[in-house]
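Quick start: read one record
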Amino acid sequence: MKAPQDFRNKSLLLATSIFDMVHETKNKSGIQLAKEILSLGQAYKKFLSICKAQGDFKEPEFAPCKEDIKAEK
């Protein structure tokens, strides 16, 4: 799954901080573990399992009415 590079980097840094804080890295650095989890698709699988536990992942529906408003500035 492709993600914007800045979002990917922030996610990796956050995960690294959490892994280092709770000492869950064993013989790897926090960043190595975070990159591995992301590249193997484990992060996405976990995201989907959380969504399923909360009633599944659904795209929001469009509102029946809408109005376009143009900003003046």
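DSSP finds three helices and no strands in the chain.
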